[in-house]
Specification:
Blueprint: H1 2-37, E1 43-51, E2 54-62, H2 71-81, E3 86-92, E4 95-102
Antiparallel strand pairs: 1-2, 2-4, 3-4
Length: about 100
């Protein structure tokens, strides 16, 4: 019946949203210590995406002023994000976006 299928679809979508929110909260919690260590970061936005290249997590860092990335910053961040596969994009002098790729 359509109603059974519809109920199953909405239940799956609700479970997926809950799992997505849980993952974002776990990432945010791991990044809290990182953010306090690198005090130049005012805000971090987290996005989960999938495209033809694969699945990735986009972190957007906002500083309110320019900043540069050193090796320690990226080493600690890749350890937190549990992957060494990433792409950095400087969007502006006060915004950095990094995509972390997963299989």
């Amino acid at each position: 019946m359509f109603s059974d299928d519809l109920n199953e679809i909405f239940e799956l979508e609700a479970n997926a949203r809950a799992k997505r929110n849980d993952l974002i909260n776990r990432i945010r919690k791991k990044l809290d210590g990182f953010r306090s260590k690198f005090r130049i970061i005012n805000e971090i936005k987290i996005g989960l995406f999938e495209d033809d290249k694969g699945k990735f997590i986009k972190l957007s860092f906002f500083t309110g002023r320019g900043f540069s990335i050193n090796n320690q910053f990226m080493e600690e961040l890749t350890e937190i994000m549990e992957t060494g596969s990433y792409n950095q994009i400087f969007v502006d002098t006060d915004k950095l976006e990094i995509d972390f790729f997963y299989k």
